[in-house]
Amino acid sequence: MESKALGGDPEVSFTFNVTLAYGAPSCFARPIVLVNGMFEPAVYIHQGDVLKITLVNNLPASYPGVSDGISIHYHGLHMGGPAAWFDGASYISLCPITAGSTYTYQFKVNDPPGTYLWHDHAAGFKGDGLQGPLIVRPRRAAPMPPAGLPPGAPAPSVPDLWQYDDEHIVFLSDWYHATMNSLMFRLNMPFDAAKVTNDSGSWNWIGNPQALLINGRGFYGDCPLFAPAGANPTPPVCAPTSFTVPPGRSAQQPWASNNNPGCTHERLVVQPGKRYRLRIIGASTLVYMTLCFEGHNVTLLAADAMPVAPVSTRCVDVNSGQRLDVLLTADQPPANYWIAVAPQYRVGSPAGYAVLSYEDPSTNATVTPAFPTTPAPQIAAMPPWSQEANEQVVMAPELLVPSNGSALAMYRREGQPTLAPPKSADKLVVVNLTQPLLENGQLRWALGNVAMPKTPPCSPLMNQLRRDPAYLTMAAVPASTVNGTGAGPNVGIGSAGPSRSTPLYLSGVSPAPLYPSVGLNIVQLEGGQVVDVILNNRPANENNGDYRPNGATRNATEQHPFHLHGHRFWVLGRGTGSFSPELHGASLNTANPPLRDTVTVAASGWAYLRFRADNPGVWPFHCHILPHIFMGQQATSRQPLSPEKMYNFAPYTKSWLRAKWGLSGWELPPLF
Ligand code: C2O
């Protein structure tokens, strides 16, 4: 609904009626979350509009996981001023909206036009479908671009980012056949390597997804695009249209409901000769994805809504939380071509497919046959697949440099004279990523050996800080005990544990905290400060205070897509190992670094970020992998930074688990 808001800004309002239903996006029926009866619907808005979303939680109160509530975060939008309260981060800016309740978000969209996403930011419902594309169009007052371009015209330059004939969304997600809350719930169980089986009731990793979806559609059973490393190097031959009938299900297709068409490959229809802007959105809960186009190169236009220098490529990499805008010209012989998405780093994960379908200009119908005649795995130019150790990305968004500066005027934030980063920083925060085992047997993902807990009962941190500014300083770690790597000034960290007495270290402390602990991981910043953040992706239990028995070590690391709320950051550099000022200092790009809101920290790698703390509020900074998180965070009365990963520490018994989730967590009680 569109109307005028106070002050004359156009106001666009939506009601999100959130319900639970059965659906089969992958051809496997399971409970899914719908908004107004739709699966992962898109929201379109113009820059300068006031967006008003009334979230109505109509999930059945008794359903497992529902008690965790829901909330909507507008990923990539930078709520400013009082709108900081509408950032949607549960436990930070608001309490989750519980079953039966309603909450209205209302804020002006100040961010540049581009591709964003909205998603649940409370518990696991994002992974059950409570997410979708969020598209910001240019200001309503902006002159309309000419309709289309003559065939053969050169690729559009930056100011013409929206000069294309039409557009398609390419929303990429990974899909599980158990609900995300039930899968993540099990991450809370005590870790016991000997008992890790589906029904042990012990700690259990969520495992690989059962399907990758493109625009909410896919097939359970789409086979992996690549053979596992070291095995048969020939790509598996599999028919993407065939699938495995899940046990207990009829082979009669589809299992889709009216609510969810599902169970088919998404079809992107193009007309010969026209140009399409593809809005690619990484909305996975876990996997890092590579998306490839059969028979077509695409030109990179923007990453995280920021224009980038054009690069032509067959494949792009998209991590959870990242967005890429690319231009695709339908200049090939009219036919059907595969669009394939494959996971990086994860052996045995399925692939996902969509069809790029040309219309036959003579009939206005899509060409037949409906599916490409070549098997999808023949898509060329995919790199060999490999696990963890090396980063087999094709076109990491973090490597794309901005397009030329002067054309970017419209992308500057108010009061920010330039898009180039400040030449130096006021603060340095070093964050070592580890996966310690706590004394109570719980495995945690931690920042600086400190994992973040959920804070029940909910009292949003922002509220707490507003009411009691001393909250931070009372438990502050003296700067003298907190050293960076020597690359900059001491890290000034304000911190508070749950009881205000648990010390918390975010990073580079000397000595490192011997045993992993739990804390809020708050970094206090002053408005206007320039902050450097070094993320070092360290071996799982490097800090050796890990409670693993008999000094057992775990060296594995995995990639983490880090997202900062309320700000963009410059990615000054990335590399392997840990950041060293001597080795890597000179290589940092301070001239024209990528400006992003999400960055991949490679397995066993580092990333060096810089941002200006110019948006008062309490802003989460976290890994965007849902099972790693459940969001950890906190920040300051003035500024951001907060960490990753937290979880609820209630002691659950096996019988309680069974009563609530069934034996395995896969057996869910009936919906209605
Ligand atoms: Cu898209 Cu805090 O996340």
UniProtKB/TrEMBL annotation:
Organism classification: Eukaryota, Viridiplantae, Chlorophyta, core chlorophytes, Chlorophyceae
GO molecular function terms noted in the UniProt entry: copper ion binding; oxidoreductase activity
Coiled coil: none
InterPro entries assigned to the protein according to its UniProt record, in alphabetical order: Cu-oxidase-like_N, Cu-oxidase_2nd, Cu-oxidase_C, Cu-oxidase_fam, Cupredoxin
Family label: Belongs to the multicopper oxidase family.
One Pfam family it belongs to: Cu-oxidase_3
Gene3D superfamilies: Cupredoxins - blue copper proteins (2.60.40.420)
Species this chain originates from: Gonium pectorale
UniProt cross-references to PANTHER family, sorted A to Z: LACCASE (PTHR11709:SF511), MULTI-COPPER OXIDASE (PTHR11709)
Protein name in the entry: Laccase
